[in-house]
Design a protein that fits this description.
This protein has a single domain, classed as Jelly Rolls, CATH 2.60.120. Helix content is 4%, strand content 48%. A hairpin with a 4-residue loop joins strand 8 and strand 9. InterPro entries: Pirin (IPR012093), Pirin_C_dom (IPR008778), Pirin_N_dom (IPR003829), RmlC-like_jellyroll (IPR014710), RmlC_Cupin_sf (IPR011051). It holds the Pfam family Pirin_C.
């Protein structure tokens, strides 16, 4: 997953001082961003007023798009540092290649999890031939300081645990929900779950009051704690909740994202998460000169060039505007 913005804005994020220890209902609207040759995404994090939810630092929602006569997703080789990427699909397939030699087709409700550690590069593309529709989410998880230099690795988990209730099927993507724990590797207390609700369902999910949460609506008509959330938008919920009321007017799909508020101050620019401007500058230089991030083999095209750094100093600050 890449930020393909040719003029990326530095995003200081992290720190607990701006996280209210109480429930809130803050509706986040997306920003539309082109991704590759023919895909447009709705970017929910970082947002104008909300940069993180727990360790979740980047959330894009795309589709459903009809790509029958289109190339679909075409994201050239690009670098990552200091984060994990999460690929999650409702429709279609994405072919993942990386500098470790991984080659994996990711299908709906399968977890593609790439841990960058200090350096990795990868590409993502719709296979040829590919399914008619493409619909999913791409997310980043920031790595805490003690884990951000772990050895880079890629995981693919096709069999994930579920939490069920009448009218609700929740797939645990990362972390723990209720008594179910994903096999995906995590480095901080968090949860990611895919929620499938039948029309007419009114239910609730158990939550950890020490976590902050958000719900990304992906399809259908959904009400979260009494607030209608339309597909492509996200409701930030704050902390202090032990349960979350959900109501589906029609069949609906969503993602629950949560985690312990991230204590560290971070600096996120382009596809890098670091702590200082010097780290970001060094990562950009290493990618430009072809060192450290390795090489992705098999992608039909050139790798993605790094954009220019902004002329002003990059400063890590808090998690809100």
């Amino acid at each position: 997953m890449s930020n393909l913005d040719t003029h990326p804005v530095p995003n200081p994020c992290g720190g607990r001082e701006d996280v209210l220890a109480a429930p809130v209902r803050e509706l986040l609207s997306p920003r539309r961003v082109p991704l590759g040759e023919s895909t447009e995404v709705r970017r929910l994090l970082p947002n104008l007023g909300r940069r993180m939810i727990g360790a979740w630092a980047f959330v894009d929602h795309y589709g459903p798009d009809d790509i029958a006569d289109e190339p679909g997703m075409q994201v050239p080789p690009h670098p990552h540092m200091g984060l994990q990427t999460v690929s999650w699909l409702h429709e279609g397939e994405v072919l993942h290649r990386d500098s470790l030699g991984s080659l994996q087709t990711i299908r709906p409700r399968e977890l593609g999890l790439m841990t960058s550690g200090g350096a990795i590069s990868h590409s993502e593309e719709s296979p040829r031939p590919h399914a008619r529709h493409l619909h999913g989410a791409q997310l980043w998880v920031a790595l805490p300081d003690e884990a951000r230099h772990v050895a880079a690795h890629f995981e693919h988990h096709a069999d994930l645990p579920h939490v069920t209730a009448p009218g609700l099927d929740a797939t645990v993507v990362l972390g723990t929900l209720d008594t179910a724990t994903s096999p995906g590797t995590t480095y901080s207390p968090l949860v990611g779950a895919d929620l499938a609700l039948r029309g007419g369902t009114a239910t609730s999910l158990p939550l950890n009051p020490d976590f902050e949460y958000g719900v990304l609506a992906m399809s259908g008509e959904l009400s979260v704690d009494g607030v209608p959330v339309t597909p492509g938008s996200m409701l930030y919920l704050g902390c202090g909740r032990t349960s979350l009321p959900l109501r589906a007017v029609s069949d609906a799909g969503a993602m629950l994202l949560g985690g312990e508020p991230f204590a560290e101050k971070l600096l996120m620019w382009w596809n890098f998460v670091g702590r200082t401007q010097e780290e970001i500058e060094r990562a950009r230089e290493d990618w430009t000169t072809g060192s450290r991030f390795g090489e992705v083999h098999g992608y039909d095209g050139e790798r993605l060039p790094a954009p220019a750094l902004p002329p002003v100093p990059l400063k890590p600050r808090g998690r809100e505007r």
